[in-house]
């Protein structure tokens, strides 16, 4: 019996919490919808004010207005002013445009042909006239028209003479029916109402006709609105503030309106409207809150049932665990037997893995040997050029030595010293050339590391310069000023660059102006080194050139392994090597892309 009593108390507590949470969620939802509608309508009012506010100021600049104010007795000028104001009213879409002198007397108006024309009327008591005369700037006012008895926004601006003096005031009246027609209730807010209140709490725009010209703040005892709304009794609305629901902002209150046979409860959200002393009061019926609370109660009930059934399930589960423990011993014996079988299988699998690793290591060693063989093959192809490069300085050294002996016999020590300096320079040049070939011929130093791509290109160009077929080829290396740090291996990248540049030099043989272009561009997360030539270009299937033993050269120029090995080197370094024909002219273009060092860090 004890657990049943606790279950009942827990059920009642759950229902109470769900009721509170449902009210909190419901009022928050209503307030959010009301605030969104308040924001939309406030933007509409702001746009309407921005649309008409500068119009009177522009109209006041018309020279005809200054002329008619200076000579109000000239009937031809008055007629022209009436016609011009009628045209202005049609252009801006306003109901009336009229001109008053300094005393508030209306001289000209757009409705001069109507019987209720403003001409001859005195409007010096209107605030929009007084504010424009006092401030010398634009003014905005809202009121009922004393003549037309139509609600409207009045925009005014003084008409000034050339010396800055005020001659009169021009006013533009815009009806506010459009603002009221823009009130559209969302589907969720089918039971909602809206009222726009002035500074005294009087509604001059309302979604319900019976709420128009009603006092929503009877406690304020405001008397000034009677000047705005003549012939209106401004009866107070029977509204009572109940409380502020839990979870809503300070602008929201729960109110009760006792108008009609059945009092209605609303959530009232009041928001100020821009540029004016207006406020928007959105009132949403609270019936959806009850439905949300019922939904929370249903959800809480289902959750309680789920938890209760889970508890019952766990009780039954714990009872059966004892039975399962006995069966577990039997399973352990079977598992031990199965484990022995798995251990035997595991040993066999480890042996297969070891054999596979040995095969992979042998494959890697074979690939490294193939790369080294290709490197030595390149050196063999360049041997003739190297012999030519070495013979020239050796011949010069022999000549300088022979001349030095003669100068020594004559006692000309200065000439002997100059010849010895030239011999030293030539020896240094030969040492640098042999050192570069020695570095190129050795194997890679280890795993990839941060290297400067410019150094690999510089070293490759020194090796290419030793080839006899590179003479007469314009090799343009657009070397960057700043280091180009990549993730790679200096010697392997140098081998790739030697292959690419050597292929480009061979491709431009026979061209009128042979040229090889080398540059470096920044990629999204790496660097691109481009090698371009103006030769005959690649075959149609550009990927075929990376296959082993594919070549378009003679057997004396290579076996077709250079590009294949180069791609393997680049793939091992995490980069890419592609080739295609140039789109900006004849020739081919190979792009080497390597990872930027910063991206790896």
Secondary-structure blueprint:
Layout: H1 2-52, H2 54-60, H3 63-70, H4 75-92, E1 96-101, E2 106-109, H5 127-135, E3 139-144, E4 151-160, E5 166-175, H6 177-181, E6 192-197, E7 203-206, H7 225-228, E8 239-243, E9 252-257, E10 264-272, E11 279-285, H8 287-381, H9 383-410, H10 413-441, E12 449-452, H11 453-465, E13 474-477, E14 485-488, H12 490-507, E15 515-522, E16 526-533, H13 562-572, E17 576-581, E18 588-595, H14 597-600
Parallel strand pairs: 13-15
Antiparallel strand pairs: 1-2, 1-5, 3-4, 4-5, 6-7, 6-11, 8-9, 9-10, 10-11, 12-14, 15-16, 16-18, 17-18
Helix pairs in contact: 1-8, 3-4, 9-10, 11-12, 12-13
Describe the structure.
With 601 residues, this protein is an alpha+beta fold. It is built from 14 helices and 18 strands. The protein has helices spanning 2-52, 54-60, 63-70, 75-92, 127-135, 177-181, 225-228, 287-381, 383-410, 413-441, 453-465, 490-507, 562-572, 597-600; strands at residues 96-101, 106-109, 139-144, 151-160, 166-175, 192-197, 203-206, 239-243, 252-257, 264-272, 279-285, 449-452, 474-477, 485-488, 515-522, 526-533, 576-581, 588-595. Helix 1 packs across helix 8 (287-381) and helix 9 (383-410) runs antiparallel to helix 10 (413-441). The model has no long low-confidence stretch (mean pLDDT 79).
Within the largest sheet, what's the order of strands? 7-6-11-10-9-8
First and last CA, distance = 66 Å
| Total count of strands | 18
Question: What percent of the residues sit in helical stretches (DSSP H or I)?
Answer: 40-55%
Low-confidence residue ranges: none
Instruction: Indicate the radius of gyration in whole angstroms.
Output: 48 Å
Number of helices: 14
* C-alpha geometry: flat
Describe the largest sheet.
6 strands, antiparallel
Instruction: Tell me the structural class.
Output: alpha+beta
The overall average pLDDT, rounded, is 79
Q: Tell me the fraction of residues in β-strands, as a range.
A: 15-25%
């Amino acid at each position: 019996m004890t657990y049943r009593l606790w279950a009942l108390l827990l059920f009642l507590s759950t229902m109470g919490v769900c009721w509170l949470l449902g009210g909190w969620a419901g009022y928050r939802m209503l307030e959010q919808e009301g605030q969104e509608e308040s924001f939309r309508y406030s933007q509409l009012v702001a746009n309407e004010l921005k649309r008409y506010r500068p119009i009177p100021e522009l109209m006041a600049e018309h020279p005809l207005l200054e002329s008619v104010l200076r000579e109000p007795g000239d009937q031809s000028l008055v007629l022209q002013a009436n016609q011009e104001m009628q045209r202005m009213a049609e252009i801006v879409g306003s109901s009336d445009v009229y001109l008053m002198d300094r005393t508030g007397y209306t001289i000209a108006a757009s409705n001069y042909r109507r019987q209720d024309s403003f001409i001859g009327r005195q409007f010096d008591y209107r605030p929009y006239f007084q504010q424009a005369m006092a401030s010398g700037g634009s003014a905005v006012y809202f009121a009922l028209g004393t003549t037309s008895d139509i609600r409207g926004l009045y925009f005014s601006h003084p008409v000034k003479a050339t010396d800055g003096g005020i001659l009169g005031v021009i006013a533009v009246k815009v009806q506010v029916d459009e603002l009221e027609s823009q009130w559209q209730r969302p589907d969720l807010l089918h039971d909602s109402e809206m009222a726009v209140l002035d500074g005294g709490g009087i509604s001059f725009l309302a979604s319900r006709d019976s709420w128009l010209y009603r006092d929503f703040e009877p406690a304020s005892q405001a008397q000034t609105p009677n000047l705005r709304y003549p012939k209106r009794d401004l009866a107070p609305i029977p509204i009572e503030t109940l409380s502020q629901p839990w979870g809503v902002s300070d602008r929201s209150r729960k109110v009760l309106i006792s108008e009609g046979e059945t009092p209605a409860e609303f959530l009232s959200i009041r928001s100020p409207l821009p540029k004016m002393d207006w406020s928007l009061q959105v009132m949403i019926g609270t019936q959806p809150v009850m439905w949300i609370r019922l939904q929370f109660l249903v959800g809480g009930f289902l959750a309680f049932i789920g938890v209760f059934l889970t508890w019952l399930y766990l009780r039954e589960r714990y009872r059966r665990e004892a039975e399962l423990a006995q069966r577990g011993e039997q399973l352990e014996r079977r598992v031990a037997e199965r484990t022995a079988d798995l251990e035997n299988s595991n040993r066999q699998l480890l042996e297969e893995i070891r054999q596979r690793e040995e095969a992979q290591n042998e494959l890697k060693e074979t690939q490294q040997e193939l790369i080294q063989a290709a490197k030595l093959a390149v050196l063999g192809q360049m041997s003739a050029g190297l012999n030519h490069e070495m013979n020239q300085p050796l011949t010069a050294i022999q000549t300088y030595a022979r001349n030095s002996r003669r100068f020594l016999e004559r006692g000309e020590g200065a000439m002997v010293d100059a010849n010895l300096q030239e011999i030293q320079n030539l020896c240094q040049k030969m040492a640098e050339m042999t050192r570069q070939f020695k570095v190129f011929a050795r194997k890679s130093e280890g795993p990839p590391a941060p290297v400067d791509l410019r150094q690999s290109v510089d070293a490759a160009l020194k090796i290419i310069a030793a080839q006899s077929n590179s003479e007469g080829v314009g090799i343009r290396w657009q070397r960057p000023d700043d280091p180009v740090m990549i993730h790679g291996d200096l010697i392997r990248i140098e081998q790739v660059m030697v292959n690419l540049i050597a292929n480009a030099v061979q491709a431009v043989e026979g061209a009128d102006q042979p040229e090889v272009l080398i540059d470096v561009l920044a990629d999204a997360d790496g660097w691109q080194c481009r090698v371009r030539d103006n030769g005959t270009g690649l075959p149609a299937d550009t990927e075929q050139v990376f296959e082993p033993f594919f070549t378009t050269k003679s057997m004396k120029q290579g076996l077709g392994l250079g590009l294949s090995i180069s791609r393997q080197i680049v793939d091992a370094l995490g980069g890419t090597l592609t080739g295609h024909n140039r789109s900006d002219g004849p020739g081919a273009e190979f792009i080497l892309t390597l990872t930027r060092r910063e991206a790896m860090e």
